[in-house]
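Subject: Sanity check before I submit

Could someone independently write out the structure tokens for this chain? I want to compare against mine line by line before I put it in a report. The sequence has 442 residues.
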Amino acid sequence: MVAGFAGRLIDPGPNVTAVDLHSAVASGDADAVRALLATGAALSVTDDDGNTPLEIAQDPDIARLLISAGAPVRTTGDTSPLHRAVEFGWTDVADMLLERGADPGSRDEFGDLPQDLLPAGPSELRERMARRLRYHGRSARLGLDEVEHGPQQTVAIRPHRAEALTTMYRGTVLVRWELEPKIKPLEIMRVGSRTDLRGPVGSFTGPLVAFAGEKSVQLRQWAAVRLTHELPDVPTGCLAMSPDGDQLAIGGNQKLRIVDTVTGATLASDEDIDHADWEGLGDARVTPQFSPDGRRLAVGNSMRGSWWLTVLDIGRDGHLRHRYDRRDPQPWSSEVSGTLRFSPDGELIAMWVHPTGVVATRSGTGETAWNHQIESRTGTLCFTGDGRTLAVGTAAGVSWLDAYTGRPRGRETTFGAVNDIAFADHCGMLAATSTGLHRLMG
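---
Independent answer below. Compare away.
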């Protein structure tokens, strides 16, 4: 037994947990850290906040112990030890990490370099990191070359133009692409700072794209994407735009409303519906999607470990009318954890459900068309233009399914993780992936 942190004894045996190492590092107990490392304590396991032991080390001597034991100073996750040290003002740790090879040019989940997290004003640490970048011929600015092969999160295609928008770094960076004669980034726009921005959500013919911020819904014109307009008094949530771009459906926390994209005025909401014969919407997730003709709305719901599909008709008076709910027998902790799509003819609704995979429903009746099991937490879906094939994007690549039966037709794994897929007749199918924006051939 060896004396541990907070006065307790640490048994240097096989049952020492990662919690012990995180606690020892956080309390600054170097002796306890040495003892735990001697037992083979895991250096890559994260705590409840997603941090490794090195990412919470405030003492440079303890950080040095962890690195000597094999903790990597260069990581590929949402942050890095250098980002953490700079963000929390642990200057001595940051200096030591730089000496041990930490990369001052790495970007965190919001696209920030370590030096971007320093307070405004002169800083010797900022200058040291800038010198290191200059020495290696690198720039602190996010460049087109870096973007072209960098991770893209979502994609929308401009109606009638060979042009697309993608997001990077949780929506803080917006990239405009040309699609002909080849796919190439044209413009990079920093549109947020350390807050999520979801989107872009576009339409078949309209001039707008929509984004959901933390507190508001933002609209941008395709013709002037740098300019943004916030819809007044419109709550944020999961977004879907009508095919003509005139209406925006917003779902969240047991609520659904349809608003005018010009004025923000509410055109319809779940309050239109007689709740006497309807159980309502989810609280964990309310994901809407318009049918191709704009006359129907499908909503994927999650609540308390279960999911269901709600289909609503949009009446001539603009009000919503409940058509049906689809609820299947399901394992605990099932949820709508990805996209929901109508087929081009509106006859099928495909939805990503964890842990089932792809669930296909006949939109007119609510009957099950087919289910297809895929081992992935989340996924994105997109029908081909003829409606015969469904592309399913996951961290493993793209799986092609027969849209009528759900049977596999093939796979594409050369582009890495697929985060989003979009289709338009004039430019085909595009995938936002971990290695850039790519055209899928099917």
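---
OP: Matches mine. For the report I'm noting this point. Residues 2-135 form a domain with the Serine Threonine Protein Phosphatase 5, Tetratricopeptide repeat fold (CATH 1.25.40.20).
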